[in-house]
Amino acid sequence: MISVKIPATSANLGPGFDCLGLALQLHNTITVETNRPFKISLAGSYCNGIPADESNLVWQTMCHFWDLVHYPTPSVALTFENHIPPARGLGSSSAAIVGGLVAANTIAGSPYTKYELLQVANALEGHPDNVTPALYGGVTLSIPTEDGILPRVLAQSPKLRAVVVIPDLLLKTEKARGILPADVSRNDAVFNISHAGLLIEAFIREEYSLLKEGMRDVLHQNQRSVLIPGLLETLAAALQAGAYGAALSGSGPTLIALIPDHLQLDVSQNMLNTMNQAGITAQSLVLDIDSGGATASSI
Ligand code: HSE
Q1: Which of 121, 162, 243, 291 has a beta carbon 3.0–4.6 Å from 238's, enabling a disulfide?
Q2: Which residue blocks in 77-159 are alpha helix, DSSP H?
Q3: Are 5 and 95 in contact (CB under 8 A)?
Q4: Given this model, what pLDDT does residue 63 score?
Q5: What is the distance in A from the centroid of ligand 1 to the CA of 287?
Q6: pTM exceeding the 0.90 threshold for the entire prediction
Q7: 151 near 116, Cβ under 8 Å?
Q8: Whole-number pLDDT of residue 244
Q9: Domain boundaries in the chain?
Q10: Does the pLDDT of residue 285 top 90, yes or no?
């Protein structure tokens, strides 16, 4: 029997659209029992709407991997314990894909390296900014190259925590991408390139005071604020309460603030109050950065 633990992830971090991301200590777990009749059992906080039949995304991903490596599909019983809320910008579909790949690879005797799994995960998921931190942990940069995605871990265990504010709204990535213009102006491109550079410096030098400026974005957050009432005000509220920096998590609706340890209550409360004033109920979590990425263990 094996168990695979996969972290939630937060993509973009403001200016790093489709390339920066980090892993959070909020996990889904997939348990696989081999030589059992096929069965999917669901547990954990978020099971509603997850198919427990062969159309399930984790199972589909496992079968896809076994096809790729010509490994005969085994009969297995799967148990999912899901704690990552779906459709909230915390990487739940990446977690399903990465978890399915790591589980299937382990069962097949680990024919693929982590780098090779990343290439498969990226081809299935479409954007690497969630799958890279889900596999590698820490704060990551995903670079599209002619040979595939080049993953870089900028900081494995940064000395900060995250407040995530999760509105009671579902928002599909396709919808949140659909409202973005296809082209960007040169000024906006320069703004985001320079800010992403500063953000990377902040993590590499552990100079988190740079995050306030470094997490600013002009390519997607303002545009998405029409879908997420209170978005811009709540990011401002995080900074006002002392967060190092704050951004929309992935394509939203969750917001993430990076904070020093002692400010967790102030930042959470200020963000929640501001969301509530915009008429949106939400819950907040204070999470550490996950430094290990998806891991498989025998149990
Ligand atoms: N970077 C994506 C977006 C979400 O903002 O649309 C995660 O892949």
Answers
A1: 243
A2: 92-107, 114-125, 128-136
A3: no
A4: 98
A5: 21
A6: yes
A7: no
A8: 98
A9: 2-156+290-298, 161-288
A10: yes
